[in-house]
Amino acid sequence: MCFCGQALPFEQCCNLIITGKSKPENAEQLMRSRYSAYCAKNGEYIVNTYAAEKRLEHTVEDILLFANQVEFVHLDVINTGQDQNFQYVEFKASYLDGQQLEVLHERSRFIKEDGKWVYLDGNLFPCEGKKVSRNDPCPCLSGKKFKKCHG
């Protein structure tokens, strides 16, 4: 199963997009591949998929600092949409920072530049983190206890 939650293995799903063997057909595919790139610690891909006007605001080092500090455990795509200029993806990305479960809830905005989808910006929604105990169900939804899975 791919990091993004699709049934295909990573190598046959998001990794094809990350390595440039395939292009995302829409904003949702790009968002899923960016999430997978965080999981795979590929900061260069994440930087390269920002809109040109935002790219200089981010560095591979900053992205990897965050990606190496946390462990992403689950992606939930809530909805997608579009208007004349943009495509939107609302999602929740759950990650562990130690034993603290955090959720990044965002409605992202994507545009096409030179025929390719890129991430422009997003609106964040507040989410409270929570401590995960050893015997709690694992937040990755594996069905295992946290201590036997990501604990």
From TrEMBL:
Among InterPro entries, the record links this protein to: NTF2-like_dom_sf (IPR032710), SEC_C_motif (IPR004027), YchJ-like_M (IPR048469)
Q: Which residues form the YchJ-like middle NTF2-like domain?
A: 26-122
Query: Which Pfam families does this entry report, sorted A to Z?
Result: SEC-C (PF02810), YchJ_M-like (PF17775)
The residue ranges crossing the membrane are none
- The name this protein goes by in its record: Preprotein translocase subunit SecA
From which organism does this entry originate?
Answer: Pseudoalteromonas luteoviolacea
